């Protein structure tokens, strides 16, 4: 996937995953990478920015499998932002699909 396209939806991906459950950084990378390929180097600056914007909070939780981990949780502002981004995404998605038609990905162009 084009880097710019991916960059544009990563906030939505992170907020959507965190709307389901609190996660630590590497866990977020694993969950998002199941759908689109990302690296740890991509996620941590994004988490730092979302924390600074007040969309996330963090807390430390002891782990049975090593050192304590920093978990991330949506704030009420993060929940609102996630809902807005989801609405915007589906409007965009539906519009693009109208332009592409009902064919498959190998048709045209």
Instruction: Quickly give the CATH architecture.
Output: Orthogonal Bundle
Shape assignment: elongated
CATH class: Mainly Alpha
At the fold tier of CATH, the topology name is Arc Repressor Mutant, subunit A
| Mean pLDDT figure | 90
Please report the number of helical segments: 4
- Helicity level, as a percent range? 55-70%
Domain unit count: 1
Walk me through this protein's architecture.
The structure is a single chain. The protein is built from four helices and three strands; from the N terminus they run H-E-H-H-E-E-H. The chain is of the alpha+beta class. The protein is elongated. It has a three-stranded antiparallel sheet with strand order 1-3-2. The protein is 60% helix and 17% strand. It has one domain (9-88): Arc Repressor Mutant, subunit A.
Descriptors:
single chain; 109 residues; alpha+beta; Arc Repressor Mutant, subunit A; 4 helices; 3 strands; elongated
Nutshell version of this structure?
By secondary structure, this protein is an alpha+beta fold. It is 60% helix and 17% strand.
List the helices and strands and how they pair.
Elements: H1 3-20, E1 23-24, H2 25-33, H3 40-52, E2 56-63, E3 66-74, H4 76-100
Antiparallel strand pairs: 1-3, 2-3
Helix pairs in contact: 1-4, 2-3
Domain Transcription regulator PadR N-terminal: 14-82
Pfam families: PadR
Protein name: PadR family transcriptional regulator
């Amino acid at each position: 996937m084009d880097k710019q396209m991916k960059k544009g939806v990563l906030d939505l991906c992170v907020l959507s995953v965190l709307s389901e459950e609190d996660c630590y950084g590497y866990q977020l990378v694993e969950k998002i990478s199941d759908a689109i390929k990302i690296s740890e180097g991509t996620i941590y600056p994004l988490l730092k920015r979302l924390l600074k914007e007040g969309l996330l909070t963090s807390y430390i939780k002891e782990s049975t499998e090593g050192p304590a981990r920093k978990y991330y949780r949506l704030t009420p502002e993060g929940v609102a932002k996630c809902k807005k981004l989801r609405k915007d995404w589906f409007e965009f998605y539906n519009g693009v699909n109208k332009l592409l038609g009902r064919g498959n990905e190998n048709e045209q162009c």
